[in-house]
Specification:
single chain; alpha/beta; Rossmann fold; 2 domains; 14 helices
């Protein structure tokens, strides 16, 4: 079985993390006849270089390649590798692979449904999705809500939830006390929000909730993890005094360490701008036994259950968010209950082995046809 993964970039987003974890899971199950093609040279996850697979980075932008030249290189790489299955991980990638699929015989899978944002009817994105839905054997989504939002035909739609690689949180040498000292945290509790700083996410509500809590207590540090265009604006929302309790740590590749010291994880989003699929930030938090408070929208209710493993809240409601955070921090029994349920959610529904097995079963089914 020869599998080719095609991505526009390998940036620090959710689909890239999902692809990386699948690659790790395939290697773990003995599958190494894999080719990875990245159209533009952008690799945020260094673990990619440790995967047992052929890696080709076309570097289209830096080399100044036009569309035709990019097509030709992709066609050559697919033909040389003689792929049995080609899996695209972004709508932009389908723009290049859809036409190649018309002249080459391989099983074709679209894996771009990672959110619940309904594509604009008259857009190039929607055209590529509709064409891919016709040409592909299956279109994979990581949430039921995402499949519905993208209007994927049911006969081709498959939901395969993200899988978390448990090896990421086995670190016997990790020293929580030292790590907190290294990033300047001395408080009893840590509340984190891990998300890109852009219009899709709602760090502003997180900051407003933090301000409310800081007025009442001084034993909590709030960590804002991620980079993006809204950084400068968000920094203007906090006073010099509040900056003693609200830290901007930028993009971090050591999310595992952050979650190891986190008591409550928050994911606030802007539903009018962006609808989550099944967020990697939520899944990773659960894997570390961290309760999550998240905006009740998109695919989030498929993983977060109120008063079971966390809390769902309405959008832009900083008052409710601050109350829920304090409710968890003030009630150790509740915190332990939510933590145990969070870990159980990952083990039963979102394990790497489960995800990998579902993909392998799908690959074998396609090759048997």
């Amino acid at each position: 079985m020869k599998i080719t993964f095609v991505l526009d970039t390998f940036g620090g987003g959710g689909k890239e993390r999902r692809c990386l974890q699948l690659l790790q899971g395939l290697n773990k199950q003995g599958y190494t006849d894999i080719q990875i093609i990245i159209v533009n040279n952008d690799v945020a996850y260094e673990e990619l270089y440790l995967v047992d697979a052929q890696l080709h980075i076309i570097d289209r932008k830096k080399r100044g390649l036009n569309i035709l030249q990019t097509f030709i290189i992709l066609y050559y790489l697919l033909r040389k590798f003689n792929s049995d299955i080609v899996q695209v991980w972004g709508v932009f990638s389908t723009f290049f692979i859809n036409p190649i699929r018309c002249i080459m015989r391989f099983k074709y899978i679209g894996s771009y449904v990672a959110n619940c944002n309904k594509p604009k009817k008259f857009s190039i994105e929607n055209f590529n999705i509709r064409l891919n839905s016709l040409l592909s054997n299956y279109v994979i989504g990581n949430s039921e809500a995402g499949i519905k939002a993208y209007s994927i035909p049911r006969r081709k739609a498959k939901v395969i939830y993200n899988g978390f690689n448990e090896e990421r949180y086995i670190n016997n040498d990790f020293n929580k006390v030292k790590f907190k000292e290294d990033i300047g945290v001395s408080s009893t509790y840590v509340v984190s929000m891990i998300a890109r700083l852009d219009a899709n996410k709602d760090q502003e509500t997180f900051i407003l909730a933090a301000k409310e809590i800081i007025r009442k207590r001084k034993d909590v540090t709030f960590l804002i993890i991620g980079g993006g265009p809204n950084l400068e604006y968000l920094q203007t929302l906090i006073t010099e005094f509040e900056s003693l309790y609200i830290y901007f740590l930028g993009f971090r590749s050591d999310v595992e360490n952050i979650l190891s010291i986190t008591d409550v994880s928050v994911l606030c989003t802007n539903p009018s701008k962006h609808k989550e699929g099944v967020s990697n930030a939520i899944m990773e938090s659960f894997a570390f036994g961290v309760p999550v408070i998240a905006t009740n929208d998109g695919g989030t209710p498929e993983i977060v259950e109120t008063d079971v493993n966390g809390f769902l809240i309405e959008e832009h409601n900083s008052q409710i968010l601050s109350e829920r955070i304090c409710e968890i921090l003030n009630n150790e029994k509740l915190k332990i209950k939510l933590s145990h349920a969070a870990k159980s959610t990952i083990k039963t529904k979102f394990s790497l082995n489960n995800m990998t097995t579902q993909y392998v079963d799908m690959y074998n089914l396609l090759l048997d046809k």
